[in-house]
Amino acid sequence: MTDTKTADVKPVKKINPNAPTEETVLATKHFTDTLFSFSITRPAGFRFRSGEFVMIGLMGEKNGKPKPLLRAYSIASPAWDEKLDFYSIKVPDGPLTSKLQKIEIGDKVLLGKKPVGTLVLDALLPGKRLFMFSTGTGLAPFASLIRDPDVYENFDQVILTHTCRDIDELEYGKQLVQSVRDHEFLGELVKDKLVHITSVTRQDYPLKGRITTLLETGELFDHIKGGPLNPKTDRVMICGSMAMTQDTKAMVETFGLVEGSNAKPADFVIEKAFVG
Ligand code: A2P
């Protein structure tokens, strides 16, 4: 005889297919009082293109009810990686980063379901040199792209520039590039192709100045093979503050490069670095 029981009928709860998933913090690393990085689990089926951004955040509350607090963040790990990396500023009274900077291994972080963005290879026409111009945490999408083998298949030279106010703000990028050079597979791929140029604007440093100034004076091109930007051979990706992306875009356009998008690939693409 089978024992049949009637289950309690519960009201059907609507499931939002776009609701963020809850991921686990795998690692955190603090670089300065204002900069840190962290890694979280990557859910099965979470697909993205290297260079894209996604919404991430923490569960907060509003009027006593749980409410997700989400901001756009560039994914700093490459599309092949099994975890997801992020690089963030810490704003003492920032609604999200004031809390996010305190996360520890095992904590939960919310991850949106729809990565998007224009700093992707698909938005650029084929070329020989790929320039990535970044300031501050605008380095993050390039932390993803410089670890993507497709970048080295598509370009002969990959030039990553990172400009910060102070020397210690360059540390994440320096450690990252070193880890790429030391990587058992990537190391060989990047050996003759990846050039990392760092500059600082508010302290003494071998290379001083904003990226816009280095482009205008031509000082940037003293450090790489092939001379000034040329729309026939060169492609550019730009990521930094709103002012930096606009001014660098204007400077790049003086060399004759044309802005592209996912829908219409061309010579350069821009994305504002997100502030948490
Ligand atoms: P500077 O020190 O001359 O302002 P921020 O933290 O403000 O985003 O700045 C990060 C880096 O970007 C700094 O080195 C800063 O230089 C530089 N920067 C700020 N605004 C611009 C801009 N409009 N164009 C190019 N670089 C900029």
**Span between N and C termini?**
61 Å
How many discrete structural domains?
2
CATH homology superfamily name of the largest domain: Nucleotide-binding domain of ferredoxin-NADP reductase (FNR) module
Mean pLDDT: 94
Can you describe this structure in just a few lines?
The chain has seven helices and eleven strands.
Structural commentary:
The protein is α/β, with parallel strands linked by helices and 276 residues long. The chain has 2 domains: 21-111, Translation factors (Elongation Factor Tu (Ef-tu), domain 3, Beta Barrel); 121-270, Rossmann fold (3-Layer(aba) Sandwich). Helix content is 19%, strand content 30%. The chain has 7 helices and 11 strands. The strands form 2 sheets. The chain has a 6-stranded antiparallel β-sheet. A 5-stranded parallel β-sheet has the order 9-8-7-10-11, sandwiched between helices. Strand 10 (234-240), helix 7 (242-253) and strand 11 form a beta-alpha-beta unit. The model has no long low-confidence stretch (mean pLDDT 94). The structure holds adenosine-2'-5'-diphosphate. Adenosine-2'-5'-diphosphate is lined by residues 135-136, 163-165, 201-202, 210-212, 240-241, 243-244, 247-248. The site of adenosine-2'-5'-diphosphate (A2P) has 16 residues, from strand 8, helix 6 and helix 7.
